[in-house]
Amino acid sequence: MFEKILIANRGEIALRVIRAAREMGIKSVAVHSTADSDAMHVRMADESVCIGPASSTESYLNKAAIISACEITGAQAVHPGYGFLSENASFAQALEDHDITFIGPSAEHIRIMGDKITAKETAKELGIPVVPGSEGGVADFETAIGVAEGIGFPVIIKATAGGGGRGMKVAKNAAELEVAFRTARSEAKAAFGNDEVYIEKYLQKPRHIEIQVFGDGKGNAVHLGERDCSLQRRHQKVFEEAPGPAITPALRDRIGMICANAMKKIRYIGAGTVEFLYEDGEFYFIEMNTRLQVEHPVTEAIFGVDLVREQIRVAAGLGMSFTQDDLQINGHSIEVRINAERLPNFSPCPGRVRTFHAPGGLGVRMDSALYGGYSIPPYYDSLIGKLIVHGRDRPEALARLRRALGELIVDGVDTTVPLFHALLAEPDIQNGEYNIHWLERWLAEQFG
Ligand code: ADP
């Protein structure tokens, strides 16, 4: 087992990894920008190294500085968290070249699931059902219209290099397609430096269902059921739950085994998530994330496992501590993402937190790097905490979430907490009846 690992990230996910490492008797090294000298991950780690200025391109994305920090501190492995360098194949490769272990999949796994077209091709080859659409990239409008007429309108144009919910345009007819195709390409060029786009059938009322997978890199792989992440704003998840209210044990087994078998074939190592849209009993692959997801705690809650611990174990060559048969679902879990944002526009609201009080009690987990007196810097993501609850069933989890939200105090900045209070009062949320469009429609009704 490693003696010391470095966490190439910040915020709550850095704490999450430091905590797992500490329980395993592994020393942790935090890296930070100059803007994060006072951050909780720096305080909580055993050691810390400043790797650059506030801008993340010069700090948290600075591969050379991170590798130097490993060399200075003697860290044997790097956990990338999510975001930043977590799905960067050349970073994984660079670490390998320096004999430092990347706590994640191989550079090759990241590549084959990296850009969205390659990922779709890989998925198809592995027997995973995909959304009908173009074969690869679409270079001109004539081809685009041909594809759209073939699969039928509406269609969605997506950037090959897209991510984080950006670079997508919907078109309901040929006229809209012409505009959408042109703007999608120029926006993709500006945002991702790559103007390649592809076309998919636009599903009308799907749920976002994702399957957690885990492999040991030696051909053993399992699935840990699904998460329903359909409640999204601008294609970004805000509320996630497991198990999915619409998923029966038979559906779970079917899609779960397809994913686990695919991971066995590629000898996948570590945690991964295969994302699907689900409609009328069918699953359609949209992408795979070759890393730990923000919403992983809901899966941990219902299966009683520590996914970060498992990531570290398999990276050290120790194998997984469970088999498929060991993994039995217990109860229901919900996570809400608490952002420092001002409603109704969700504009970022960084600044000084006067008081922070985390909720507690049975079945409540608060993953946050906040503390009273901390100043949330304006340079990074607005996620300031994740509140995760676990109950024996969905109604108990909902009641617990309502109770825990009432205990949470973040004084000094605006947060998305009022959004969740309002959502919990909605019959559709109480009944689990929502799809990927529900939240946008509801927000439009509430705030216009
Ligand atoms: P990103 O990598 O930017 O998150 P995804 O491909 O995972 O992009 O898609 C994000 C979200 O966009 C999905 O959860 C869904 O809400 C919506 N979406 C993507 N593809 C489709 C589609 N074919 N039909 C309808 N909605 C889609």
From TrEMBL:
Annotated ATP-grasp domain residues: 120-316
PROSITE patterns per UniProt: ATP_GRASP (PS50975), BC (PS50979), CPSASE_1 (PS00866), CPSASE_2 (PS00867)
Domain Biotin carboxylation: 1-444
GO molecular function terms attached to this record: ATP binding; biotin carboxylase activity; metal ion binding
Reaction equation(s) it catalyzes: N(6)-biotinyl-L-lysyl-[protein] + hydrogencarbonate + ATP = N(6)-carboxybiotinyl-L-lysyl-[protein] + ADP + phosphate + H(+)
One GO BP annotation of this record: malonyl-CoA biosynthetic process
Superkingdom of this protein's organism: Bacteria
InterPro entries named in the record: ACC_Biotin_Carboxylase, Acetyl_CoA_COase_biotin_COase, ATP-grasp, BC-like_N, Biotin_carboxylation_dom, Biotin_COase_C, CPAse_ATP-bd, PreATP-grasp_dom_sf
EC number: 6.3.4.14
Pathway(s) annotated for this protein in UniProt: Lipid metabolism; malonyl-CoA biosynthesis; malonyl-CoA from acetyl-CoA: step 1/1
Keywords (A to Z) from UniProt: ATP-binding, Biotin, Fatty acid biosynthesis, Fatty acid metabolism, Ligase, Lipid biosynthesis, Lipid metabolism, Magnesium, Metal-binding, Nucleotide-binding
Assembly notes: Acetyl-CoA carboxylase is a heterohexamer of biotin carboxyl carrier protein, biotin carboxylase and the two subunits of carboxyl transferase in a 2:2 complex.
Reported function: This protein is a component of the acetyl coenzyme A carboxylase complex; first, biotin carboxylase catalyzes the carboxylation of the carrier protein and then the transcarboxylase transfers the carboxyl group to form malonyl-CoA.
Protein name: Biotin carboxylase
Native source organism of the sequence: Szabonella alba
